[in-house]
Write a structure and sequence with these properties.
The complex is a heterodimer. Chain A is mostly helical. In chain A, 47% of the residues lie in helices and 3% in strands. Chain A is globular. Classes of the chains: A mainly alpha, B mainly alpha.
Chain lengths: 212, 270
């Protein structure tokens, strides 16, 4: 009884797949429809702000749908583009951890509401939204890995400072298409701001590197 | 009709890949317990009667009620209508969600100006709420106890669903965010705020069954259109137009991902 039921399913399954699935639009059609929507369905106070919706090459590659995987070639291209994007400040890579501390806990800046761009002296670093920071801090997110003890674990040598700077400026140079925003490369943070975040992460005096 | 639904179901079964349902035990989570206690005495209920009065009242330049408005089950028939939205409407030749359909009726039947409704659709926090918020809640509440199950029989419904899926994963802007960056994994938070895992059936079902919701921090009813707008704001992207095709496509995707869930509104959000 059970066997014949399965046999029936096996016979019908390909037909159902052929008829049912074929009726969905293909990838190119879907992309065309969706991109047209994006181009008409948003407003911004200036054309430059509207351009935030336009994807660069890396964002296109990194927008894999559902379980689609990044190919080796695509990952290599994202890494290459990321490396080429990184700019360094004129001074040193390690700034002031006290400024970095404030920046790491600042989640404001750059948002658009009721026809206005949020007015701030500078954009926040957004770190607290996704990362655990100093020991004992409760109001922190967990989308990204914990940064508690970042410097205690790695030290504050020049290579560590450089790697840290680059991972904040454009983390896709090391982890292509990760969830981490390319904070420097997209212009959300300035190189100088990033040096303060580097200090906050690696300076032995920083709260992030204190024992609880 | 039965055939159509069968086809749609078979189609979903063979094409869609559901994530595994993750068992999330939140018994030990103090915040979750607090939210549960608040939800049991939901102030959002107060807006249902207001929405009902607005629906049946003679309003707008044409002094007409919304009783001629067709949400997919026939003029004025609201039972189960929200459980089958978004869907294709022949008169507008568009797939529409609840709120964009409501807009169509308020303009065409009652004679309101489109811009006026949109301008007032999202009410200020702490206010008495907007007409659209109360109406959306009332209409959705008439599907309480019914299962979310929007149709996929029309080609445009299937297009909206696939476009919504594409948009869910589309990254852009200075934060490189798409929806999936925050809503693609289980047990994630932004600061202390729990994020729903929407590529998982259970998480999507939470979305599909709880909007419109009473938002504790705003003291008003908030709708799905508002929820999407607010996400794009936080992502540092331009402002999503109320009732736009982008919003409808995303709602199509989420409602299909969460299909089968029993609707229970108003939801309660922090």
């Amino acid at each position: 009884m059970r066997k014949s039921w399965m046999k029936g399913m096996l016979l019908f399954a390909p037909a159902l797949i052929a008829v049912g699935c074929a009726s969905y639009p293909d990838e190119a059609t879907t992309r065309g429809l969706a991109e047209k929507m994006v181009s008409t369905d948003f407003t911004a106070p200036t054309p430059a702000l509207l351009n935030r919706l336009v994807q660069d090459r890396s964002q296109q590659i990194c927008s894999k749908i559902a379980d689609a995987k990044l190919t080796q070639e695509e990952a290599a291209e994202v890494v290459k583009l990321a490396r080429a994007s990184i700019r360094y400040p004129s001074g040193g890579l390690v700034g002031d951890w006290k400024i970095g501390d404030k920046l790491a806990h600042n989640g404001a800046g750059g948002r658009i509401q009721r026809g206005q761009l949020e007015k701030r002296k500078e954009n926040g670093g957004l770190c607290q939204n996704c990362h655990a920071l100093a020991p004992g801090e409760i109001n922190v997110g967990n989308i990204g890995p914990s940064l508690t003890g970042y410097g205690s674990q790695r030290g504050n040598s020049e290579p560590v400072a450089k790697l840290t700077y680059e991972r904040i400026y454009n983390g896709w140079a090391y982890a292509p298409c990760s969830n981490m925003p390319r904070l420097g490369a997209t212009g959300h943070l300035t190189p100088e701001q990033i040096t303060h975040l580097v200090a906050y992460l690696i300076d032995p005096q920083s709260p992030i590197n204190q024992k609880k | 009709m039965r055939m159509n639904r069968g086809f749609a179901a078979a189609c979903l079964a063979c094409c869609a890949t559901w994530g595994t349902v993750a068992a999330q035990d939140k018994a030990g989570d103090g915040l979750a317990i607090g939210r549960q206690m608040l939800a049991e005495d939901n102030p959002g209920e107060l807006w249902i009667e207001q929405g009902k009065a607005l629906f049946h009242g003679l309003r707008g330049p044409r002094k007409a009620s919304l009783e001629r408005c067709d949400f997919g089950m026939g003029p004025g028939k609201l039972e189960g209508a929200a459980a089958q939205l978004p869907r294709y409407f022949a008169d507008t030749d568009k797939v529409q969600d609840l709120e964009s359909r409501l807009l169509t009726c308020m303009v065409q039947i009652q004679g309101f100006q489109h811009e006026d409704i949109v301008k007032r659709a999202v009410s200020p926090a702490g206010s008495n709420g907007s007409d659209v918020e109360a109406l959306a809640l009332y209409i959705t509440s008439r599907s309480n106890g019914m299962k979310m199950n929007p149709p996929l029989s029309h080609v445009k419904e299937r297009e909206a669903y696939k476009a919504g899926e594409y948009l869910f994963f589309r990254r852009s802007g200075q934060t490189d965010f798409g929806c999936v960056q925050c809503h693609g994994e289980a047990n994630k938070r932004i600061r202390l705020q729990d994020l729903l895992h929407m590529t998982d059936k259970k998480g999507a079902q939470e979305v599909a069954s709880t909007w419109p919701a009473y938002r504790g921090g705003h003291y008003v009813i908030r709708t799905m259109q508002w929820r999407l707008y607010d996400c794009f704001w936080q992502m540092r992207l331009p402002e999503l137009k109320y009732g736009s095709d982008t919003s409808i496509a995303l709602i199509s995707y989420l409602h299909h991902q969460g299909s089968g869930v029993v609707i229970k509104v108003p939801g309660f959000k922090r």
